[in-house]
Write a structure and sequence with these properties.
190 residues; 0% strand; homodimer; transcription (chains A, B); Arc Repressor Mutant, subunit A; 9 helices; TetR_C (chains A, B); Tetracycline Repressor, domain 2; TetR family transcriptional regulator (chains A, B); mainly alpha
Chain lengths: 190, 190
């Protein structure tokens, strides 16, 4: 028995990449344990030993797969960190390697509750990692201690998505500066 | 000949409602001029006289159909207007009557370029109507004259969507206050 399913089998990264590639290429319905096993060259029994369902595998893949990782910036200022973070999110939303995966997860609605749940888990774990940006900004006296990191990340990530998907417009550094300006200034009001 | 296709035929509202109902119930692929004609009791020739394609009809329906309209608030303060507007957007995203339509438009990605384009047109026209909120706030001296309304609306609407779709969490008045606090304060910084 493995210590923890979170650790994953030896070929975990290959399995994760296969799962998110299948999601991006063929969509959620075509993503099956069978297809992941075949394409990654791993026995189906092995997959089921680690993940009870394709949804469990997908949730793990979204959280752990290397292309979906963002580095948590540490630039020395709150505004610098938000700018770097917004740039990373914009990259995930637009880069060849990740745009289709992002679109699949972001468009999961009531009709794909398991995929939506995997997305919720992904964004919840990411928010936990992003908290350090706020802890450091509070320690530096840049923002109030009662700031809600979730609200700030929603504003930033939501605006980037609105610009790209709702308006069909490109995200450039000027746009990132504009949203960071509002958010960074707004968090200093009492 | 009608003066302008934007005016629409006599049964325009029925046709619009039928089109957005079909989109919500069956999805973009099942939405055809044939189906709209049948369900709304309007001759297909009439539809084509006004709209050259289902995409043109859909774009008109999104912009004009009553359930998707939002009233532009005029509360006397920028913060009050943003709060009311955020409440209206939250309602569109969650109400029984509109949530499925919103989900269909918001999830239109590269695979549904015509639906995405109809969405872009919808949000562009809506932004034009929202500008008066900013004009009045500038006239009252509440915000700087170089404020970009698109940036502010992206932040608000994007955060509401992120909260609901990415995080799977409910939007309550406290959340709306929190995002409006950041945005209204942030737009006062120089």
């Amino acid at each position: 028995m493995p210590d923890s399913p979170a650790a994953g089998p030896r070929k975990a990264e290959t399995i994760y990449l296969t799962a998110i590639d299948l999601l991006a290429d063929s969509g959620y319905d075509e993503l099956t344990m069978e297809a992941v096993a075949q394409r990654s060259g791993v026995n189906k029994t092995t997959l089921y030993r680690w993940w009870p369902s394709k949804d469990a595998l997908l949730a793990a893949a979204l959280t752990a797969a290397a292309p979906l990782q963002i580095s948590i910036p540490d630039t020395g200022s709150f505004r610098g960190d938000l700018t770097a973070l917004a740039g990373e999110i914009a990259r995930l939303l637009t880069a060849d390697e990740t745009a289709a995966i992002a679109a699949a997860v972001l468009s999961a609605s009531a009709s794909r509750p398991a995929l939506a749940a995997a997305g919720h888990q992904f964004f919840s774990e990411r928010l936990e990692r992003e908290r350090v940006i706020f802890d450091r900004a509070i320690a530096r006296g840049e923002v109030s201690a009662d700031i809600d990191p979730g609200v700030v990340i929603d504003l930033l990530a939501g605006a980037l998505w609105a610009r790209l998907v709702l308006r069909g417009l490109a995200i450039d550094p000027r746009y990132i500066d504009a949203i960071v300006d509002v958010v960074a200034c707004g968090t200093r009001c009492e």
